[in-house]
Amino acid sequence: MASALPRRIIKETQRLMQDPVPGIAATPDDNNARYFHVSITGPDDSPFAGGDFKLELFLPEEYPMAAPKVRFMTKIYHPNIDKLGRICLDILKDKWSPALQIRTVLLSIQALLSAPNPEDPLATDVAEQWKTNEVEALRTAKEWTRLYASS
Amino acid sequence: MDDEARRRVRELMAQTPAQRPPDWVNPLEKIEQLLTCPICLDRYKQPKLLPCQHTFCHPCLESCADTLHHALKCPECRAEHKIPYDGVKSFQPNYTLTTILDIHLQATPESAAQVEEYVHRYNLERCKVCEEKAECQTCPHCDRRACEECRKTHMDMLKRDMGRLVMQVKRLSNRITEASDGLSKGIELLSLNCETTKQEVQEYFHRHIRELKKREENFLGEIEIFQSAETRLMGNLRDVLEIESSNMSEAVARLEAALKGEYDMDDTEIVRYKNIFTEGLEYLRNFSPDADELFCKKLRFTVDDAARLPGAIQTFGEITVMYPGSTGRYDKLEASYVPRMISSKIGLESDHFRIRSTDDRNAMDLGRNRFRETDSLTEHSLRYRRRQQIEEESWNRVRGIEGEPRERSIPGKSPWSRPPDETPTKPQNNTNSLQTTSAKNLQVSSKESPSSSTSTSPRPPSPKGISIPVKVEQSNNEPELETKSKVTIRVEPKQEPKVEVKSETATKQIEKPPTHKPPLPRQPSSQEEVEKNENGYIGRRSSRPNSLLIAEPSTDKEEDEDDRPRTARFRLRMRASSITRQESNEERETPIPITHYPGEHEGTPGSPRDRESSPAEIPDWLARRRARQQRSRTNPDLYAQFTSTRVQQLLAEREQKNENEKLASINPSASVQGLDAIDQMDEVTTRRSGAPYRARTKSTGHRDSSTDTGRGWRSRGGRPKNVFGRKGGGEGELNWPRGVTTLPGGHVAVCDSSNHRVCVFTATGEPLKTFGGYGTGAGELDSCAGIASGRGRQLIVTDRYNHRVCVFDSEGRLERQWGGHGPANGRFNNPWGVAVDDLGTIYVCDKDNHRVQMFDKNGVFVGKFGTHGSAEGQLNCPLFVAVSRINHTVYVTDSSNHRVNTYDMQGKFLFSFGQEGFQGGQFKSPRGIAIDNQGSVIVVDSGNNRVQVFTADGDFLVSFGTWGAGAGQLKGAEDVCLLNDAIVVSDRENHRIQIF
Question: Where is this chain compositionally biased, Low complexity type (chain B) (predicted)?
């Protein structure tokens, strides 16, 4: 397995460990170097502030020609993240480019927490709530953060 | 330094990138990043350049190519590119990157050294001269960083220049030695000159002392002759009387004996005796010899004018320091034969180097076309500078400042004798102090002043006695001191003694070093001014017993303007003030105010005018006494008699009676009387008091003034009715009071010049308020001089050293100000007196511009008149101005011409009166001027320490006041104004106000 690990992944991992992005921690799994345990701190200007969200990230065989697979492990009230933790983010799908890296992907997810986009929903009910009663939605998001993402 | 930087870099490199400061970027890391493929995150392998200019490895591109659609999406910008027919390998290789990637950097100590050397060279700065990168150092001459080579060339130039400079300096160095030789010669000449002058003075004084002694001996001889003659006469008479007496007693004894029958006598003898005794009895009855005539004869020594001789001794004589006429000419001659090189720096090669290189750069920056522009620009600025220079020069010349080049060559100020770090200001101070010490020396040398004053003790002449006039005609061989006095045993009122004392001036010609340059704005430009200025005052105080006025060196302006050689004159005026007399005056408080009447010189006691104006006022005995008193002007004893309280009381009573009678005949309400002057001064008051009343008071005022001008001050015979103020800065104290003016309500406003404020007093001298304060800001003053009350209770003050005019309201708040220093219209140079006419036009004496400027009430310039000079209508330091309401004439005291000029309201010259002198109608630096409500002109004749009154046409009427500190005496009187019927005089050097 290790022999098959491309240099790019090794370099990326090294960089992530050496020079981590503020608010983001990504550590490779001890058994699988393509599997990362990620934790993102909720941005301060969002209802997810103070939350510590766990994610899993998996680099497929084709990586970097294919996008990594990322999923929220922590329950989160967000219009672009569904119950299963799947994320609706273009760069993880058709807009993937091999010039993108784990670091950039995680930064994009962090940005998504700051700016939920209910126009392009994944969790429709949440998106609906967000559009009709944003105050309530924000309150719920905060509540969920408090409930599920507080360490 | 290098080690420090390296250590720091190592530390930073050891840290994770996140921990490093955000601005810190390792350049090598940056280069490494640029050589990394964003896909494999490894070094580019066969870098291919996409049409969108992004570069990737060939294998990476291969793996992300969409072979199915023959398309490639750029992983960086997502741009879609068609893959060439041959496949991805046909994309253009990135050759630049390939060559860079070929450089194999291997870190060895050698390569590290190479890199270090490279970096060092890379970091070298460019030479500011040749624009090449090199080791640069600052050139100490042109203060630019230049490379070794350029510096060397420059230094070579400098050395060559210096060679030339040394040559020139050597050639001209003899000037210094010549000057120093000249100075040592000058010192000898000076001591010689001083010695001769001393001898002259001594000789002069010895001669006069001899004369005095001779005169004294004459007097004593006369007295002895008189005594012996009289003794003989009286002795003879006594002998005769004794014989008479013994004969008589003999006859009596004989007759008695005969009557007792002791011895017989025949009838005829009896009859004879009877006759003898009858006659004798008759004789005895009639024998009542005039006791006074026979044995009460008294000899008395009187001097016609007690103060004349001591006064003359105190004031006569003057020592002036004069430059020879050729001073200053040297400079101009010099300029013609001194080689140009020394004065024009541009001739130096090394300086040219400096200029050329900057010019080159300019040319480079600006390009060819622009270069011409800059050329014309510099020419223009040159022309401008030239004009400015000329202006400045003429300005300096007017103000008597040494020109620029002259100042540079002040002795002892050459760059060789200057310590390298010292600023040029210090040597200047040295020269200043040097100058003052030299002045001091002069002061000491001329200190032997006339102190041999004959002390005369005048006593009132006895009213009765046998008169034996003893005329002592002195055969004077000195024309200057021409005294004609008489020893009289009875003073006859007809005799009119005259004392003519002319002062002898001893001049002294001494060559002096050039004068220093005083600070600009406060620069006193005329000698008159300095003399009366604070400095002069201090000087006078410091050497009091025979005080000496040290005038600042000043230049003769007229000559200067004509570009003729300057003659700067030091004037050391000896003005001995006998301290004993002054002190005794102060102790006794006996004033010596004298009223001169015009008829006096003709010898008529009491002028016709005097008799006209007050026919019944003065009884005969008083008129006689007054006439006598006038002749012996400053005789304190006489004055004491004259002004004894009883006499004063009588006078006052009489006056009061007259006044009451007059009032009763015209107007029953006596209180109106005082209003006449106020009425004219302030319309507001009268308007308030109602029209009919106003008309009445007006008529009263006019009538009064026509019949009885200046009744108040004249009746007091020059004795002030009120004196207030003393030296100090507190309330009610004054420091060099200058301008005075009357305010509505009978108050007096005074320019307290050295306290830089305006003080308002009541007529009795109670301080009411002050305002102002030193400074240049709004409402602040710097040596205010003139003051006038304008309409609406405004106070117009000239702020002398701020060169402006300030208008305050009645509360002392600044309403507006205008002016500024300069010769232009509406600007001033030492504005002094100020006056306001009926229309509200403000007249300001612009002293050192030698003109009077006119402004409307808002301070807008409306006109000016007078130019500098002594011809008709010209002015030389006009000090005060007054406008007559009667004939609408502007009177200006033209102080340095010692006259009063008159102009009409448009500034057209009418006439002038007075010239320099001490007689009635003559002036010595006239200052304050005021017009009373009859049109009479009251002038403060400051240099003669008196106040003179003239008619509106300039005919002398009367004067009063003498030098001194007592009441009614003046020292440097400045300004005058009228308060109702009283004359208010600012007695500057006594720091007080006197109301006559």
Answer: 445-457
**Alpha carbon distances (Å) from B35 to A11, A136, B77, B111:** 15, 51, 18, 21
C-alpha distance from residue B403 to each of B333, B396, B516, B519, B559 (Å): 15, 7, 11, 14, 15
Q: Are B401 and B517 in contact (CB under 8 A)?
A: yes
CB contact under 8 A, B78 and A97: yes
pLDDT at B20: 72
- For residues B602 and B494, give the distance between their C-alpha atoms in angstroms, rounded to a whole number: 11
B849 neighbors B829 (Cβ within 8 angstroms): yes
Residues of chain A contacting residue B64, judged by C-beta atoms under 8 Å apart? 65, 98
Q: How many whole angstroms separate alpha carbon B192 and alpha carbon B882?
A: 51
CB contact under 8 A, B64 and A18: no
- Contact between chains at B17 and A6 (C-beta distance less than 8 A): no
Q: Which of B16, B18, B75 sits opposite A97 (nearest CB)?
A: B75
Q: How many CA atoms lie within 13 A of A103 on its CB side?
A: 16
Instruction: Tell me the C-alpha distance between B772 and A25, whole Å.
Output: 76
Q: Would you call A88 a catalytic residue per the annotation? A: yes
The three-state (H, E, C) secondary structure of B176-217, written as one string: HHHHHHHHHHHHHHHHHHHHHHHHHHHHHHHHHHHHHHHHHH
Q: Rounded to an integer, what distance in angstroms lies between the CA atom of residue B445 and that of residue B460?
A: 41
Q: Rounded CA gap, B146 and B688, in Å?
A: 85
Exactly one of A88, A89, A123, A127 is catalytic; name it: A88
* Cβ separation A18–B17 shorter than 8 A: yes
Averaged pLDDT score across all residues of chain B: 70
Interface predicted TM-score of the whole assembly (ipTM), two decimals:
0.81
Task: Find chain B residues with C-beta within 8 A of A7's C-beta.
Answer: 40-42
Distances (CA, A) of B111 to B29, B34, B115: 18, 22, 6
Give the count of beta carbons closer than 10 Å to the beta carbon of residue B849: 25
**Using CA atoms, how far apart are residues B667 and B693, in angstroms rounded to an integer?**
11
Q: Number of CB pairs < 8 Å for A and B?
A: 38
A65: Cα separation from own chain's centroid: 19
For residue B66, the chain A residue with the least C-alpha distance is: A65
Backbone angles phi, psi at B450, to 5 degrees: -70, 110
Residues of chain A positioned with their CB less than 8 A from the CB of B73? 97
Q: What is the pTM of this model?
A: 0.34
For chain A, the maximum distance between any two Cα atoms, rounded to a whole number of angstroms, is 53
Answer whether A65 sits within 8 Å of B63, measured CB to CB.
Answer: yes
Is the pLDDT at B707 greater than 50? The verdict is no
Token pair, residue B985, equals 């005089």
Chain B: residues touching A (Cβ < 8 Å):
16-18, 38-42, 60, 63-64, 73, 75-76, 78
pLDDT at B645: 54
Count the residues in chain B.
Answer: 996
For the stretch B106-149, pLDDT in tens is 667 787 788 788 888 888 888 877 877 778 888 887 788 888 88
The CA distance from B3 to the nearest CA of chain A, in Å, is 27
